[in-house]
């Protein structure tokens, strides 16, 4: 018998529009390791166990299978559409005039939905890499961020809101330098900012900037993404679940270190989107934020343990003449 977490116990967040969303969701980026059917079945199990926030993207190559699951859970009466919060993203090769709208409509068709709750610009430039590429892969057409080019994509996101195809729009993988160039140009402000967030990489300055500008931080890699693709690995990476602070706090609470990372994330005010295809793990991930919270001193200890270790460095998006991945992040 699958364990079902009561909705009333799951923390929630409020977007600047007044709309609510769960404070934790399930990610669906597993295309480098898991087949789309396996990911979709995990989404089914996650919704059945109580998840209501599903973080998707066109580049994950599994939205059609997830769409079958979304239709299934609604037909079975497990959940109604109004209680789901579904996110998708436009990929880098679809930033041109008309392409963002085309991409969104394709995602809607694949997901078998009439609207998306949140639609994100996945990366802030049109630099494209093929799915499953290696770390040294480079596209000769890649180029640095340009606000004017980004706004071509953003204007289409705004149009999607005006058409009723999308309830909220947001950005992802941004920096303060980039945000300060584009936020004054937005007619519809971003409701969320998806960013890498975990105990070893807390991005406090960007996090605080997002909050100050009414953008809800959604955290990817909340567990330090131990199964991330090889192209996102370097020798100096640290493992969050091996950080002494995390291990010791986990021992006190008698839980896996992963659950400490998630408790910290939710209590820190972000929305983590952990991914797992294993039922015990995704149920445990949801349940852990409904019970046995971390103490204030434990939160302070984790906050002080930040290693400033970015795991998703984005080397594959570099342009000819770039010095290194740091250029992507305005360092």
Instruction: Return Rg in Å.
Output: 19 Å
- For the record, the CATH class is Alpha Beta
Average pLDDT level: 95
Helix content: 25-40%
Number of domains: 1
Element pattern in H and E: EEEHEHEHEHEHEHEHHEHH
| Alpha-beta content class | alpha/beta
CATH topology: TIM Barrel
Considering the protein shown, what is the CATH homologous superfamily?
A: NADP-dependent oxidoreductase domain
Q: How is the largest sheet built, in terms of strand order? A: 3-4-5-6-7-8-9-10
Largest sheet: 8 strands, parallel
Please name the CATH architecture. Alpha-Beta Barrel
Oligomer: single chain
Strand content: 5-15%
Q: What is the count of DSSP helices, taking H or I runs of 4+ residues?
A: 10
**Spatial shape:** globular
Give the number of DSSP strands. 10
Measure the end-to-end span: 50 Å
Task: Please give the structural blueprint.
Blueprint: E1 12-14, E2 20-22, E3 26-27, H1 36-49, E4 53-55, H2 63-75, E5 85-90, H3 99-111, E6 118-121, H4 147-162, E7 169-172, H5 176-182, E8 192-196, H6 204-212, E9 216-220, H7 244-253, H8 257-267, E10 271-272, H9 279-287, H10 296-303
Parallel strand pairs: 3-4, 4-5, 5-6, 6-7, 7-8, 8-9, 9-10
Antiparallel strand pairs: 1-2
Helix pairs in contact: 1-2, 2-3, 3-4, 7-8
């Amino acid at each position: 018998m699958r364990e079902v977490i009561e909705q009333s116990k799951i923390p929630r967040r409020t977007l600047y529009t007044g709309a609510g969303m769960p404070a934790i969701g399930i990610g669906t980026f597993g295309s480098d390791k898991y087949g789309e059917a396996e990911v979709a079945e995990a989404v089914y199990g996650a919704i059945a166990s109580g998840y209501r926030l599903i973080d998707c993207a066109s580049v994950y190559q599994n939205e059609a299978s997830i769409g079958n699951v979304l239709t299934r859970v609604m037909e079975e009466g497990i959940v109604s559409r109004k209680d789901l919060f579904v996110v998708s993203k436009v990929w880098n090769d679809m930033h041109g005039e008309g392409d963002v709208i085309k991409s969104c409509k394709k995602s809607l068709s694949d997901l078998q939905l009439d609207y998306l709750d949140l639609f994100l610009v996945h990366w802030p430039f049109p630099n494209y890499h093929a799915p499953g590429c290696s770390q040294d892969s480079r596209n000769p057409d890649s180029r640095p961020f340009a606000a004017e080019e980004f706004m071509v994509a953003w204007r289409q996101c705004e149009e999607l809101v005006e058409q009723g195809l999308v309830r909220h729009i947001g950005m992802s993988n941004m920096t303060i330098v980039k945000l300060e160039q584009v936020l004054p140009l937005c007619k519809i402000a971003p409701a969320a900012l998806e960013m890498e967030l975990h105990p070893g990489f807390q991005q406090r300055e960007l996090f605080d900037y997002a909050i100050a500008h009414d953008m809800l931080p959604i955290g990817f890699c909340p567990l330090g993404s131990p199964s991330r693709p090889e192209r996102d690995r370097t020798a100096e990476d640290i493992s969050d679940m091996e950080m002494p602070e995390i291990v010791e706090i986990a021992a006190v609470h008698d839980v896996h270190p992963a659950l400490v990372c998630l408790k910290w994330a939710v209590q820190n005010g972000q929305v983590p989107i952990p991914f797992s295809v294993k039922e015990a793990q995704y149920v445990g991930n949801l349940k852990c934020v409904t019970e046995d919270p971390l103490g204030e001193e434990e939160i302070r200890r984790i906050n002080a343990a930040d290693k400033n270790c970015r795991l998703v460095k984005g080397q594959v998006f570099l342009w000819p003449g770039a010095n290194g991945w740091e250029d992507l992040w305005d360092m």
